Amino acid sequence: MTKRLPKTDVVIVGVGWAGGIIASELTKSGLNVVGLEKGRERKTEDYFMVHDELRYGVRYDLMQDLSKETITFRSTEKIRALPMRQYGSFLIGDGLGGSGVHWNGQTYRFLPYDFEIRSKTIERYGKNKIPADMSIQDWGITYDTLEKYYDKFEKTAGISGEANPLGGKRSAPYPTPPMKKSPAMQMFIDSTTKMNLHPYMLPSANLSEPYTNPDGISRAACQYCGYCERFGCEYGAKADPVVTVIPVAKKTGKFEIRTHSQVRRILHNGNKATGVLYTDVTTGEEIEQPADIVVMTSYVFNNVRLLLMSGVGKPYDAASGKGVIGKNYAYQVIKGNAVGFFEKQQFNNFAGAGALGVTLDDYNGDNFDHSNLKFIHGGSLSITQTGLRPILNNPTPAGTPAWGPEFKANSIKYANRALSVGGQGSSMSYKHHFLDLDTTFKDAYGDPLLRITFDFEEQDRELAKYLATKSADILKEMGADHIDQLKELGPYDISTYQSTHNTGGVIMGSKPESSAVNTYSQMWDYDNLFVVGASSFPQNAGYNPTGTVGAMAYRAAEGILTYRSKGGSLV
């Protein structure tokens, strides 16, 4: 028998960055909030002995258990989708803080172009520049409107950085100065400046100095240990929800976190959400949590899957192009990179931080002329020093045997003589790239798995080659003696890690016919149901998504409070 609990003001599904921000803002305003997290409790003390590359980097200790819940994948509708049984292309976080615990901390703002991509592309190049099967669309919101929310997130997280010379206008500088420059980063700055490019220090959630944020949360500075991505931070220097926003919500006494709570359905009556149904994974008990307002703040895949399983919103149909839930799945083109090998110079590549680096946007967005190019948008180019841990990193020049004396000699020789310059390319949405429920495979509870239909397109192949060439040009200017670069981008490979930058499926827009949520992340047809996260991106930009997720979460919190007092649609 299902256990029914007393109603709360707000129930949040997933307590990561978006959930933590919304819980903090709503509880400070006096609302009672329940946060449901399917993973375990987390705190900084858990990472005091975190420098274990095998446990965290190779065996994915912070990630979701794929034997109990995973996704299925196919490149086209013509082939059968199969479950992802081991981690590869992306990593799905698990536990309090979600993917905000194991991220690197790179915290960009999207370019103004990103939010008005369709209209701006047509304005400059005409409608024929956009392929017929490409389904990009404007967000319904501009950078200028979102700017104050970016600023708020950066001050909460204590982002260390300097202004992007080719980015949107800022109302204030970053709250902390940029991180340290390594010799390799200085070489990149000197070389790209000579090339008339515009390098700037990468905006970092790894604190450059001790910092106290506007909520009174104090954190220590980064130690440059190199254990960020796939790891939690034992210093609390890397901003994550557990050390920033969640403590603020808990301090109010109005936030209750329930871990080990697998939400399985959004409950609704007519066009109103009434609460959620979840399973206590420690006991197997089914529990109903009624609420006046339901907020979906879990990872992209779970946001989409729960809506589809609950019959909330109209599922997307690729054949007709109708429906919105599951529409416009997009990813990231990370393959536009080059590696330079240096015979006479050595670098300390084992020291670093997740967001230590220099980047430039001369080839990002529409900052360059695309008239004679076979793609739109572009990507940021960066050199990063994230700390090359020894198990997963072994750079050798192309042509080196995979074993034997030459392999060993080159492994030793180039361990600290190789530098990578890479592109983080945008990912445009297509009508035939989408998310839906698998018709065959189910999770441990008997619910259908989410199915991804996605592959790289000609747009991606041309973009990757372009960025790889630009990366190689920079390494040549830096003095590399030998350069290996991407020549061709093959089909999308889900077995090889690329990035955990999955987006789309519950996209944002200006009208309900083509989007699932409005610019406050409120569902068009369920006004007390908000869906927040990268699932709202109509396509993906040439950056990490977290800064934009944080900004959108602050805007959503503002919208929820307005809805609480006035009701109705916010648009």
From TrEMBL:
Keywords: FAD, Flavoprotein, Oxidoreductase. InterPro entries: FAD/NAD-bd_sf, GMC_OxRdtase_N, GMC_OxRtase_C. The keyword Transcription does not apply. The keyword Flavoprotein applies. It comes from the Bacteria. Residues 221-330 form the Glucose-methanol-choline oxidoreductase N-terminal domain. One of its GO terms (molecular function) is oxidoreductase activity, acting on CH-OH group of donors. Residues 438-553 form the Glucose-methanol-choline oxidoreductase C-terminal domain. Belongs to the GMC oxidoreductase family. PANTHER family: LONG-CHAIN-ALCOHOL OXIDASE. This is GMC family oxidoreductase.
